[in-house]
Amino acid sequence: MKRLTNVIAAAAAVFLLIPGAQAAKEKTMSDVKLSLAVQTEQGRVRVGVLLKNEGTRTVYVPRTLAVDKDPPGRLFEVRDADSGEKLAYEGVMIKRGPLKAADFMELKPGAEQQNSIDITNNYSFKAGKRVYQIAYDGLYWDDMQAEPDMAKALTLTSAPLLFTYGGK
User: Fold this and answer.
1) Which residue from 20, 126, 132, 166 has the least number of CB within 10 angstroms?
2) Distances from the Cα of 61 to the Cαs of 5, 88, 93, 115, in angstroms?
3) With contact defined as beta carbons under 8 Å apart, do 91 and 120 qualify?
4) Global pTM?
5) Is residue 139 within 8 Å of 154, Cβ to Cβ?
6) CA angle 156, 92, 41 (to 5 degrees)
7) 94: three-class secondary structure by DSSP
């Protein structure tokens, strides 16, 4: 009888945990969708960025990703698709202080933001036609104060994307 009681108690505990697990899963799912597209024409590598807020709350996305045409630092991870080697960043690096609210752009529910960033001179692309992989991995917030609270940061990532470029 005691064993049956323990089994029932364990089953009840699992049953009670399932809704909590679902809620935790939903909280970590991103309401911001990020997609990248790459154009390699006329000797240039241009990254098209599309940010969509599919949630019901205003969010705050990195201004460098959303509107800057020449971001001040490494924004994307670019790799040689064959070797997996990470390309060196050769662009402008600006030393900055802590993140501020001004470093982020408000994106209202249902809104989209597009940007085009030329990364041709920012990464050490090799001579000759090669296949590369690009991805973005950063943060955004759904609540913004004067300084972003790192404990409340949410992950913003793109799927890795392959593209071919003929080199410099």
Assistant:
1) 20
2) 51, 25, 20, 13
3) no
4) 0.79
5) yes
6) 75
7) coil
Please report, for residues 49, 52, 58, 118, the alpha-carbon distance to residue 69 in angstroms, rounded to integers and kept in the order given. Answer: 11, 19, 24, 7
Reading the chain (168 residues) residue by residue, the pLDDT tens digits are 444 333 333 333 333 333 333 332 333 447 999 999 999 999 999 999 999 999 999 999 999 999 999 888 899 999 999 999 999 999 988 888 888 899 999 999 999 999 999 999 999 999 999 999 999 999 999 988 767 888 899 999 999 999 999 976
Cα gap 135→35, rounded to integer Å: 9
Q: Which residues contact 98 (CB under 8 A, 6 or more apart)?
A: 147
Q: From 48, 77, 66, 74, select the one nearest 135 (Cα to Cα).
A: 77
Helix, strand, coil % over all residues of the chain, rounded to 5: 20, 35, 45
